[in-house]
Amino acid sequence: MPMYVNTQKTIFDKTPLTPRTVTISRDGMRAASNNYNLLNRIVIWDAKSKEHTHALEGGHGGEAVISVCFSDDGERVASGGEDGRVVIWNALSGEQV
After folding, report:
1. Rounded to an integer, what distance in angstroms lies between the CA atom of residue 83 and that of residue 73?
2. Which of 24, 50, 62, 84 lies in the 20 to 30 Å Cα band around 78?
3. How far is CA 72 from CA 22, 43, 85, in A?
């Protein structure tokens, strides 16, 4: 089951971004966060290096992303936005599915 963290203090201390939600993939290799600083962007992280690898943008029409979650296999990320939609993303390519 994915782990959710709603805190400003995370394992990702290298970033100036303030996480709103963080989810960890089941295998522990990647994390995804949405941030108070960049409301309409999801950042994908390498959990080992603690560096962000890419961002997912544009799925909620400029509205804030309010939640993120990895699929059980870690290949997709689901995001819920203030626009009332759920968007499914390819976690590796960053493209909407």
Report:
1. 27
2. 50
3. 15, 18, 20
CA-CA distance, 2 to 79, in Å (whole number)? 14
Structure tokens at 47: 């959990």
Q: Given its phi and psi angles, is residue 49 left (phi above 0), alpha (psi -120 to 50 degrees) or beta?
A: alpha
Place of tokens 């108070």: 36
Asked if pLDDT for residue 85 goes beyond 80, the answer is yes
Alpha helices for the chain (secondary structure H): none
CB 43 within 8 A of CB 17: yes
For the record, the structure tokens of 50 come out as 């603690």
pTM for this predicted structure: 0.75
pLDDT band at 16 (very low <50, low <70, confident <90, very high): low
